Amino acid sequence: MKITVVGTGYVGLVSGVCFSDFGHEVICVDKSAEKIEQLSKGQVPIYEPGLEDVLARNAAAGRLKFSTDLVSAVDGADAVFIAVGTPTRRGDGHADLRYVMAAAEEIGRALTGYTVVVTKSTVPVGTNRKVAEVIRAAVPGARFDIAANPEFLREGAAIEDFMKPDRVVVGVESEKAKAVMAAIYRPLYLRDFPIVYTGLETAEMIKYAANAFLATKISFINEIAALCERAGADVKGVAKGIGLDGRIGSKFLHAGPGYGGSCFPKDTSALARIGQEYGVPQRITETVIAVNDAVRRRMVDKILDLCEGKVAGRKIAVLGVTFKPETDDMREAPSLTIVPALIGARAKVHVVDPHGRREGEALLPGVVWEEDAYTAAQDAEAVVILTEWNQFRALDLKRLAGSMAVPRMADLRNIYDRETVLAAGFTAWDGVGRG
Ligand code: UDX
């Protein structure tokens, strides 16, 4: 198959690279000449484990190309994927479809023969039909079909999620488009990964419902965690005890500082807006969002309580600022509310993150960046674990405690246990939901 991917952001790049690894001929298009030049040299602008290697081997095999020229790239393509951004629109929480519609129109004008135009970007219900209208309006008589093909990639594990998905969702309305999509995903079908074919609106809804449901699990366990602290229960035990029930499932029940990233906050907020628009308020999702906001404030209180209210002028070490490990992504990271709150309380905040500094420097003014956890914690009065990078899971706790002015730990990802931390010489420890 000949595939064109428009937009080389996170989703577009991972999809294009992986499609070429299936053996398809892929051109990734972006308006940014700088980005395309970088990618053509094999340089990946984001940190995603494995991506650079898969890109290199397919580029070397001549199956993967990068270009700024959308018109030539669309010429003769079997399928064109729209993978441009859908940020939350300022003010009203809606997904901003400006880039999707602009891409659709441009693609429409460039179509030569029959092509399936596929939306990969997460878009509100009804958008795929609008994409078709935009193309038809731009080029009456254009030969194309639309397909909705939402992605379910986790950052940090995107290649694996693409190559070994729980399922692939394809919304189509014609047998012809279905055949093209089936040919594209044939390597996964042959390996027994389920491909779910639906209508357009159902595919669009699946994406929002999946992310809102996962976000619900997180907000749910975070509320249970707060209750565990008061009631003397341990949320880790609770999560295990409920998760073994197959109907509940053990994943996404880790209590912590709330969900962040590029998907959950954006998609829950968009779903809430869609619900309001249709006059069917999504009350559970609305509450999930409110709970997630409250969790962050609760984390700040936890740190202040751990420090007995005295943080002004005191050094606090924060380990991890990205929204989760194995990514350099800072979007909606809990650190973006927690760190400024500490600085607002006049704490001297020293931070360390294996990949967060490049983006984080501009986003977290007033902090001191350190190279490792031990220098960050030197003379500090508390160490706060905010992102569960592996290197923070295996700290020499005795060494850490020994170098601190007051050895206290707020373990907001529950990667340690009270006994272990106190045995290493810490005088105070607090986790999330560990009553
Ligand atoms: C998510 C979805 O998993 C993916 O399917 C979708 O397409 C995009 O959004 P991602 O945002 O990369 O992927 O990260 P994920 O690993 O799902 O974590 C999201 C957030 O939830 C993170 O902030 C993480 O720390 C938090 N989380 C996750 C918890 O707080 N507890 C959990 O048990 C799981």
Describe this structure in words.
Keywords: NAD, Oxidoreductase. The protein is of the alpha/beta class and 435 residues long. The protein has three domains: 2-198, 3-Layer(aba) Sandwich (Rossmann fold), CATH 3.40.50; 208-290, Orthogonal Bundle (N-(1-d-carboxylethyl)-l-norvaline Dehydrogenase, domain 2); 295-430, Rossmann fold, CATH 3.40.50. Helices cover 46% and strands 14% of the residues. It is built from 19 helices and 14 strands. The protein has helices at residues 10-21, 33-40, 51-60, 70-74, 98-110, 127-138, 158-163, 175-184, 186-190, 200-231, 235-243, 264-277, 283-306, 335-344, 357-363, 373-377, 390-393, 397-403, 418-423, and strands at 2-6, 25-29, 64-67, 79-82, 115-119, 144-148, 168-172, 195-198, 315-319, 348-352, 368-369, 382-385, 408-411, 428-430. Helix 1 packs across helix 3 and helix 10 packs across helix 12 (264-277). The radius of gyration is 24 Å and the shape is elongated. It starts with a strand and ends in a 5-residue tail after the last strand. The model has no long low-confidence stretch (mean pLDDT 96). Uridine-5'-diphosphate-xylopyranose binds next to helix 10.
